[in-house]
Protein 1
Amino acid sequence: MNILVINSGSSSIKYQLFQTPAFDCLCSGLVERIGLDNAVITHQVKIGDDEKVVKQNLELKDHEAGMAKVCELLLDPKIGVIKNPNDIDCVGHRVVHGGEVFSDTTLITAKVKEEIKKLFSMAPLHNPGQYLGIVLSEKIFTKAAQVVVFDTAFHQTIPAKAFRVALPNAFYEKNKIRVYGFHGTSHKYVATQALAYLGKPDAKIVTLHLGNGCSMAAIRGDKCIDTSMGFTPLDGLIMGSRCGDIDPSVILYLLSDLGYTAKEVHHLLNTESGMLGLTGSGDMRDVKKLYLAGDERAILAYNMYAYRIQKYIGAYAAALNGLDALVFTGGVGENDNLTRELVCTDMDFLGIRLNRDKNWQTISGINEISAQDSRTKVLIIPTNEGLEIAQQCLQLIQV
């Protein structure tokens, strides 16, 4: 069975094609800068034991042109992996926000699409592009089962004491204002990997998905009990360009005293803050270079970033009533040894002790970097949201 996984963003399309039963990744790619000058597509395909990378700069006026290009590469006479669009048995779509309506992987119907459209305002940077990916996919892969996996679904096991906010009840009952959480597909994938590695199905785990967007989750066994992102992906940790936790009065001050509009505040908190606002760059690789060069702003920003994470680890260890493992994943979590070292420093009370030499080594796959006498395991587990989506799709359509 061929399962195509699509993550359609506001100006991008990310895709992977898996073949069951082994879930071999036949090809993958990324279309960037759709609708902008100099769009780029990077396509990786496995031919026998060799991997070929095709990179093209081209004009793509919209997502429809981008999807057409993806299909063209899938069908290419020399590097194609299918002969006909009907060779795709299932298309799995990532959608960020499922609200309270969706708590499971779901077959796409007209009603499901309408519900996704209703959630546009809750994830304006994500859901509209992902909805468009669904519509275009239905036109191209007409014989395939269309399936949606929601980033919020994994967090639907969070109890009311953790997901409710202390506003008048009507705001929850009528407007559904609550904690939803995001990055759920990634948290679920690495938690499953960690449970298997630990050989303890009821383990108490804190997962850290650290990338441009950052979130944490407290997980007991296979159930999430709390997460750091809230009503939107703005809440929680310091991120590449998002501020994370902030006193609501700061927002009121920006509006009433400094003359900002609501739109300007939204832009400020989401796209001009975080590491970008503190250092001038939202890319942790650039900030790390500044840190190592002794830049005071970068040093402060790194310390703030790690300290916020440490506070959440402490809170989640309390919520779980213990801690068996700390799991780093995502682009920063998997690759930034400085972040991991700062996060795990002075955490002995929680049984977290790092093996510094292992932390600074580059090892593929699951990597245990805790010291031998650390009560809490510290793991690096590469995330694979595409594979998780493909596996969930197969489970659904085989039922």
Protein 2
Amino acid sequence: MQPGLIALQARLQHVFSDPSLLQRATTHRSFSADHNERLEFLGDSVLNLAVASLLYRRLSALPEGDLSRVRANLVKQDTLHQLALRLKVSEVLRLGGALEALIGAVYIDAGYVHAEALVHRLFEGVEINPQMQAASKDAKTALQEWLQGRKMKLPQYQVVATVGAAHR
């Protein structure tokens, strides 16, 4: 195994019993057919569940809607990017990659308890507070809540175009 991947395991505080999972988690689809997208898909769900569990315990007085907004604030790309930088994931990536794929790889390798522990360790240094609820309300949610509060019809949405690297 490459020294960079060995060091990443130390930063993750998880030694893979199946090192190929770590290799796959750090491989972008443009590099190899054995890439991280499926692990990223799985890791995204594990991340959401582990953060929901963390918030349920830490913010026990908050109602469900507020917990959902705080969770959305924590699992957004900016926060995940900062966590990936802290783990120095970019040192071992093969043309891109995602923190979610690493979480998915730990889940496959060792189960939910280990993946949840990783997510909880990652978020130890992240400020979590009830005031996050307002900061993460997106424009679509705000519009729908405003309309519903006035008993008005919700808008009908239509995809006009899909552009960008994810849609190539």
Protein 3
Amino acid sequence: MIKAWAPACAAALLLAACGDAPAPLTERDLAPPAVIKPATAAPVAASDVRTLEWDELVPEDFRPDDLLTEYDVDELSDDDPRAQELMEKLLALWKQAPVVEALDGQIVRLPGFVVPVEGDGRRVREFLLVPYYGACIHVPPPPANQTVHVLAQGGDVTIRGLFDTVWVTGVMRVEHRSSELAEAGYQIEAIEVTPYD
């Protein structure tokens, strides 16, 4: 779940963004993927794993919605120069979004959508985990503190396709990573990737 300010900020970004509509889901997209456990994954006791919600990746004092008080978003059209100005300010804020340092080193479990960073579209070793469908591709990327760079330890991860929904379990690192798709404020060294139910 994303903070209450996120939908308003995302709407502002969408106003000025030139994203295509997401492709409709196909039967292949809806088929359950195989459970993935990288070959070298060490067993982890369930009691050692902290299940996170996306809100927990955002510091309580991070208030990007304060920026929106300068603009009447409902009155901005796509071609309004103020919409472009707002988008540029939000994107700059997104890149530097603060993280929760206390998460560093914890074994966590987090659900999300897969955006491959590399691979053939079916097997990946690196991907971004994001909280909503279409992030980084069809719409502007989420803030850095809502983007997690995932490295599969011990082997590739098989996915159904772009925006597969999964649970990722692994060691959380508070580490900034850049890719051509997005800025990530966190990294998870995945020991298990399973279908989201």
